[in-house]
Amino acid sequence: MLVEAGSLWGILRRMTRDRSKSQLLLVAGALLLLATGEGVAQQTKALPAVASPMGGPPPAAAADIANFFSQVGNRIYEYCIFELSEEQLEVQHALIEAYIKQGATSALARQLAIKQIRPPELSDECKQLKNQAKVPPATSVAAPWHVTTRKSEVALPKVSANDFTPVIPLAEKHVLPQWDCAPGVNYVTIQHRGYERKLSDGEICSPFEDVVRNVPDTVRSFRLGYTITTGRLFVITDDPQHNGMTIAWAISGREACRNNPDPDCLAARAIGPLPPGEYAFTSDKDNRVSWGPKTKRLVAGIYLRRLWHKEKFTAAQTAAMLARGNIAIHVRLKGEMSEACLALEPNGWAYVSSLISDGRATGVNVYLDEPHPQHAEKPPVVRASSFSLSALFKQ
Q1: What is the rounded CA–CA span in Å between residue 371 and residue 226?
Q2: DSSP line for 186-231
C-alpha cells in the first residue's frame, strides 16, 4: 500500500514541529519504501503536483527524498549507531593483543574482544532502518570534524599513531586516582595511539553513571558550565535558584589526562581535556547538532572564543591550547574516551543535545575547578566490574 505524497509531507510538517522520534522513523521508513520498486515510478508523476514543505516550486520525487534526509536524516541516526567507531575498532584490536599476552588463545581473545566491544543495542525501529537503508546520513557543512574553507569543505587528513606524539612530554603523568581502576577490579592494559589504557570487560575504568537531571522548563535560556576536575556539566543562569544545578557528567581527555587540569595535559594535542574558557556553538542554529563523519555519530561543535587563566600557563602551553581544534560534545561508546571533547553517556547526550538543538543551551563555559561548590557532589563513577582474568584461560 502506497502512502500519498500529500499525506506524507503533512506528517513531515507535523514531525518537524514536535520532533517526535517515532514519527521520524515512521516517515523515514515510508520514504525508503517510496524509493524502491514501482513505488517511485508511480509517485514520481504525482509528486511534482505537491507543494514543497519548505515553500517554493514543487521538486521532483528524488529531490524531495534527498531534501527530507538532508533535514531530518541526522535526527534518525542520532538513535541508530549501526557500527563500531574507529576508536572502538582500535580498542577491539588492542584488546585481542592484550588478552593473548595474558595467556588467552587467539580464538578466545578474539571472541572476548568482539563480545565486549559492540555498537549500542539497537531499538526495534533502528533495526528496521538498518534492514531498509544502507545510505549514510547527509554531512552538514557545520560538522566540527571538517575544516570549512570559503570555497569548499575539506575533510581532515587521516592520522597515524605517530601523529599523536604530544608536544608537551607526558611520560611521567599517571591517571588520577579517582579515575583509576578500583582495588580488586581485574583489568588489562592496552596500547592505544602510543598511550596505555586500562580496560575492564572492554570498558574504561571508573566511567560515569548515566545520570541526567532535567532543567526546569521555566529556565528557558542558559549557558552550559563544565568543570574539568570533576566532569560535572551544569546550568549557568541569572536565576539564583537554578544557577549551578547539575545536568549530567562528561569525560574530557584521554588516559593520564582524563579530567586532569594539569597545564601539560591541557596543552597536549589529542589527549588532554578541553582548555578552560568561553565556547560558542556554530552560528548556524539549524546545524548546531550535526553528523560527524569521522565519529559516525551526531556531535555538537563548540568553538573557543576566549581562553581563561593565561597567567597560569607558559607561552608554549598557551599557544598549544589555542592551536587545538575540533572540540565537540558527543556520546561516548563503550571502551572509548574523549579527545579534547565532552563525552557524555547515551542518556546524557540525548538530553544535552536536545537542549542545544532547541536553542535553550546557548554556549559553554569551561572551568578548571568547581565554581559552584554548594551544588557540587561526588562524581557518580562506576567502580565495580564483573570481568575476571581467569576467563582468559577457559577453553
Answers
A1: 9
A2: --EEEEETTEEEEEETTEESSPBP----PPPTT--SEEEEEETTTT
Model-level pTM? 0.75
Give, for 297, the enclosing helix (H) or strand (E). strand 297-307
pLDDT in tens, 330-357: 999 999 999 889 999 999 999 999 999 9
Residues 249 and 380 sit within 8 Å (Cβ to Cβ): yes
**Percent helix, strand and coil across the chain, each to the nearest 5:** 35, 20, 45
CA angle 380, 385, 389 (to 5 degrees): 155
For the chain, residues classed under CATH 2.40.440.10 are 208-367
Contact 326, 144 (CB under 8 A): yes
Strands 222-227 and 328-331: unpaired
CATH topology of domain 208-367: L,D-transpeptidase catalytic domain-like (2.40.440)
Report the sign of the C-alpha dihedral through residues 16, 17, 21, 25, in that order: negative
Q: What are phi and psi of 146, to 5 degrees?
A: -120, 150
